[in-house]
Amino acid sequence: MTAYVTASLLELETPVTDPVVAKGLSCLKSAIYDMKNTYATALFAYTFSLARDTETRKKLLQKLEDLAISHGPLLHWSQSDSKDDSGDSLSVEISSYVLLAALTADSVSTADLGFANRIVSWLVKQQNAYGGFSSTQDTVVALQALSLYATKVFSADGSSTVSVRSAGDAHHFDVTQENKLLYQEKPLASVPGKYSIEVKGSACVSVQVAQFYNIPTPTEAKTLSINAKTEEDCKKTSGRNLLLSLTVKYDGGQKRTNMVIADIKLLSGFTADTSSLEPNKHSNTSLVEQVDSKDDRVLVYLKEVPKANPVNLQIHLTQIVPVKNLKPAVIKVYDYYQT
To answer: Where is the Alpha-macroglobulin receptor-binding domain positioned along the sequence (predicted)?
Structure first.
């Protein structure tokens, strides 16, 4: 958080002599020797690059080079050890901060641009068809980094022609100084098909192919289920009384669930008597941990639901206000920690 705030102040061109910035950098410098978090290391590197602290910046960038994940011409970073993190929001953000750090210096060398180009090549492969990324945060940081890269490789001269061909389809895109900021798009007719892309010229261009298709809505594998039924409560004679019986079942891969919530929406005009559900302090077999009644709903917290061992619950409902055209009420059950 300190690195994020300090970097923000430095981006606003607050001088490093400002007491807040100076104390922030001092706090950060004391922590760089025990850095175990890749995200923090990348953010620190960008912060000290903004502060023009070349010595600290160099140490952090060297550490990041050791942590880099290289795939041929592509280079990126990940918070996890997994190599299969393409499109991961945090990986995009970390790699963008490294790119910002690499390009934020008094002078950017050809080697720096070569290093940056490998990161850019990975980043643009993560962009979706609309130019963004996985989330708002990684999109903001990535676009900032790509924009900075664009200023470093900007040239007022040159043009390029991009040719896209297949056996039955051909397109040509001319990128000149007059239209270089114009987004150009054409639909491909021969799909599925094998296309080749050829670029001639001296201007830097970005080419993206986007494929859109529809798939059937996947069916969710539900391991938790709930069955409910109501019947007239004959034991109570005053007014209309219902007995709501619930059965919560678990049929997943574990022996038991985590804590489970049964969220019971009451019928309009009815109130619930949950006294029969209240946890019995003298019973070791009751799985009810807590019962909360909130306005028109009842929340039942179950310690767990064992596999293939359904939990049965009963609630007495009493009608206090007659309601015409009574609509059904929803009851849902979910794992507290993995909804």
So the answer is: 257-338
Q: Which of 323, 317, 318 is nearest to 239 (CA)?
A: 318
Position 118 confidence tier, pLDDT thresholds 50, 70, 90: very high
The CATH code of the domain that includes 98 is: 1.50.10.20
User: Based on the domain organization, do 137 and 28 belong to the same domain?
Assistant: yes
- Tell me: cis bond preceding 310? Omega within 30 of 0 counts: no
Count of domains observed in the chain? 3
Q: Would residue 209 count as lying in a domain?
A: no
**Reported confidence tier of residue 238, pLDDT bands at 50, 70, 90:** low
The answer to whether 60 and 43 are in contact (CB under 8 A) is no
14 falls within a domain: yes
Q: Dump the DSSP string for 43-102.
A: HHHHHHHHTT-HHHHHHHHHHHHHH-EEETTEEE--SSS-S--TT-HHHHHHHHHHHHHH
What is the rounded CA–CA span in Å between residue 106 and residue 267?
68
